[in-house]
Amino acid sequence: MHRYLITGAGGFVAPHFLNLLRQRGEPFEALGVDLAPPVWTGPGVKTAALNLLDRAAVEACLVEFRPTRVLHLASVSSVAVSWKSPVESFQNNTNIFLHLLEALKNNNLAARVLSVGSSEEYGRVEAKDLPLTEQHPLNPGSPYGVARVAQEQLSKVFAEGYGTDIVMTRSFNHLGPGQKAQFVVSSFAKQMADAQKAGHKAFTLTAGNTQVVRDFLDVRDVVRAYLLLLERGRLGEVYNVCSGVGRSLDQVLATLARLNGLELKVEVDPALVRPNELMEIVGSAAKIHHEVGWAPEIPFEQSLKDLVDSWKM
Asked: What residue ranges define each of the domains in the chain, with the CATH number in brackets?
């Protein structure tokens, strides 16, 4: 029976991962940790408050729980926030991960670690290079992207130097029920849900640059990928977790408006336009498909519908 330590348990992805474990019907134990512990219940499930910047506390937690698998989700995951608070972003992506690896190594804890990275590691790319494979050079264009590259490099150093059992991802944009409104598509969905609840048939939506193209993936497909990588991923390897399909935010907005029967006008708020914006990024999922047998299953329109519905509750 595997014992899962899930960091960032109060965030968007962790509850979906826990649901997946439950759906499989196999015995497991899980400890979800975050600055404020989430409200999780059920057999074999525990939560705890843990500041991953506190090295001694991290070590005590791992020694007591003795995980066999670690899903490291904790981070400051917003690119926009990283521009406003680059020091906090770097520390909360890199230092916290290093504390986890040191605790595992120093206490001879044989756990497999999934280091979750980001497509932001690729940075600005040319259209001719799309879709991006894992062999494409990394050239991060934001403080967040730099921190994620550092985390990936630390993973490789520990895997090669100490034999730590680490698998890495470069995860592309994901969405779905429960995502906070600080993320772009969820912000759109919330604004549309609010308009519908108010009885509007037409409304004006505030956004940043809607011409950017991103590779969006349903969070429920993401967690399936994460579990398969914990089970089958190769030690020291990095995998794109992506759909392989690029969609502009304009396309996303048009689909949302159609699904919700709304007439939409978009106003650009300069404050929402990021410095050094990456205009187009789309990944190749060939490696994860061939090596672990994963492919996305949830249609994009279903993801958008479920996201909007979650804001109506």
From this structure: 2-175+216-242+282-292 (3.40.50.720), 184-213+246-281+300-312 (3.90.25.10)
Residue carrying structure tokens 């106003």: 267
Read out DSSP for 51-94?
-TT-HHHHHHHHHHH--SEEEE--S---HHHHHH-HHHHHIIII
Note if the pTM is more than 0.85. yes
The interaxial angle of helices 249-259 and 184-197, nearest 10 deg, is 30
Whether the CB-CB separation of 119 and 171 falls below 8 Å is answered with yes
Measured CA to CA in angstroms, residue 150 lies from 6, 144, 206, 243 at distances of 21, 10, 34, 25
pLDDT digits (tens, 9 = 90+) for 60-103: 999 999 999 999 999 887 787 888 888 888 888 899 999 999 99
Contact partners, residue 36, CB within 8 Å, separation at least 6: 10, 49
Retrieve residue 184's tokens: 């772009």
Pairing of strands 69-72, 213-215: unpaired
| Alpha carbon distance 129, 281 (integer Å) | 9
- What integer pLDDT is reported at residue 146 of this predicted model? 94
Tell whether the model's pLDDT for residue 276 goes beyond 70: no
pLDDT at 250 over 70: yes
Burial bucket for residue 263 (CB in 10 Å: 0-12, 13-18, 19+): exposed
pLDDT at 64: 97
Q: Determine if residue 66 is left, alpha or beta; phi over 0 gives left, psi from -120 to 50 gives alpha, anything else beta.
A: left
